[in-house]
């Protein structure tokens, strides 16, 4: 990453009001509650102000890689900057944290294009790709499907046909990092000052692609396991890099699990939505209702049972996670106002006692 002064328009900055005494900066790396920001004078370490920490109640209230922030610059650069304000996001990519918790995790913000990476080896999985497309559709960013490791497949035409069956209008590019011109399709679509986030499960080769695009080993990589083509979570902290062609890229940790909360499932299953327009009942769930056009399409072979099952599974998962997130936000609000539910009940009982 760069550490020399430069115009922040090179990092995608657009005109926006800045409070007197503060400076504009972009978050280029995060690790827990520590931040690295790019300012007009170069890179600085940064921490959150007490005010910002007190106002934050959910994960989305904290800065993440790609965010634009307003900071108080130090007199001595060694002291680090203080992040005072978080600018409104143009786009944001989130996921549910792994496991049973309903918490939401910020992945990256202000992304122009999400590059959804899937390897053409044993990692190839259409159901996972459908999940990524649903989350990408809700992010506000454009999406491009990036098929990696083309050197490790002998069935590329069949795989491209399978991807086309779920991609809809989303562009698809194929990459082979072992060949000199193996990234030509990818580099042709990347533009200066625009931000691209590489997303994909561990082992699909995101860091390898970025290193090739950067022309250096900017990111560490590890070999994947031969047994299942999964990686070892090489990338543990998100970071934003500026490529030689002026494009901005964000590498993200490999995701074994991508829980859906903010997802546009209907948009990524436009084929099922089109069929549903002909169902007998407007609220048809496409299970056992009579006159279901979607089930009829499955019976005729127009739609695969696996794709319908994926759609129904994602819709059900999203409904559960949205309900859990609502409860989590309510609990966070109670904790902020009263400390705990027990303390809230105690204060309410005291208030009722005073009114008697």
TrEMBL record:
Q: How is the cofactor bound?
A: Binds 1 zinc ion per subunit.
Presence of the UniProt keyword Cytoplasm in the record: yes
- Region forming the signal peptide: none
Q: Which domain of life is it from?
A: Bacteria
Return the Gene3D superfamilies for the record.
P-loop containing nucleotide triphosphate hydrolases, Probable gtpase engc, domain 3
* Entry EC number(s): 3.6.1.-
Provide the alphabetized UniProt keywords.
Cytoplasm, GTP-binding, Hydrolase, Metal-binding, Nucleotide-binding, Ribosome biogenesis, RNA-binding, rRNA-binding, Zinc
| Matching InterPro entries | G_CP_dom, P-loop_NTPase, Ribosome_biogen_GTPase_RsgA, RsgA_GTPase_dom
A GO-annotated cellular component: cytoplasm
Molecular function as annotated in GO: GTP binding; GTPase activity; metal ion binding; rRNA binding
Q: Which residues form the EngC GTPase domain?
A: 109-256
Q: Which Pfam families match?
A: RsgA_GTPase (PF03193)
User: Which residues take part in binding GTP?
Assistant: 148-151, 200-208
Q: How does it assemble?
A: Monomer. Associates with 30S ribosomal subunit, binds 16S rRNA.
Tell me the HAMAP family matching this sequence: GTPase_RsgA
Q: What does this protein do?
A: One of several proteins that assist in the late maturation steps of the functional core of the 30S ribosomal subunit. Helps release RbfA from mature subunits. May play a role in the assembly of ribosomal proteins into the subunit. Circularly permuted GTPase that catalyzes slow GTP hydrolysis, GTPase activity is stimulated by the 30S ribosomal subunit.
Q: What is this protein called?
A: Small ribosomal subunit biogenesis GTPase RsgA
């Amino acid at each position: 990453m760069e550490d020399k002064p430069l115009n922040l328009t090179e990092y995608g900055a657009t005109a926006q009001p800045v409070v007197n005494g503060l400076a504009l900066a972009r978050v280029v790396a995060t690790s827990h509650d520590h931040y690295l920001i790019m300012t007009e004078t170069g890179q600085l370490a940064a921490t959150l102000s007490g005010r910002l920490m007190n106002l934050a109640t959910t994960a989305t209230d904290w800065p993440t890689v790609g965010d634009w922030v307003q900071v108080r610059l130090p007199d001595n650069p060694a002291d680090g900057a203080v992040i005072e304000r978080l600018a409104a996001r143009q786009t944001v990519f989130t996921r549910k944290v792994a496991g049973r918790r309903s918490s939401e995790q910020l992945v990256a913000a202000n992304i122009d294009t999400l590059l959804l990476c899937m390897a053409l080896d044993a990692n190839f999985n259409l159901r996972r790709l459908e999940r990524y497309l649903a989350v990408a559709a809700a992010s506000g960013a454009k999406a491009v499907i990036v098929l990696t490791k083309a050197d490790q497949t002998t069935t590329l035409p069949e795989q491209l046909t399978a991807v086309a069956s779920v991609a809809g209008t989303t562009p698809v590019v194929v990459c082979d990092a072992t060949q000199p011109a193996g990234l030509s399709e990818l580099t042709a679509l990347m533009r200066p000052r625009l931000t691209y986030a590489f997303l994909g499960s561990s082992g699909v080769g995101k860091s390898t692609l970025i290193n090739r695009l950067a022309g250096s080993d900017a990111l560490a990589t590890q070999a994947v396991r031969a047994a299942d083509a999964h990686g070892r979570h090489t990338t543990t902290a998100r970071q934003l890099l500026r490529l030689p062609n002026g494009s901005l890229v964000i590498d993200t940790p490999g995701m074994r699990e991508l829980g859906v909360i903010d997802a546009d499932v209907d948009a990524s299953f436009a084929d099922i939505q089109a069929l549903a327009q002909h169902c007998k009942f407007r609220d048809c769930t496409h299970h056992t209702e009579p006159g279901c056009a979607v089930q009829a399409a499955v019976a005729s072979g127009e739609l695969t049972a696996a794709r319908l099952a994926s759609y129904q599974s994602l819709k059900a998962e999203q409904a559960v996670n949205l309900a859990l997130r609502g409860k989590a936000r309510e609990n966070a609000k109670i904790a902020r106002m009263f400390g705990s539910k027990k303390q809230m009940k105690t204060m309410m009982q005291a208030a009722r006692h005073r009114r008697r």
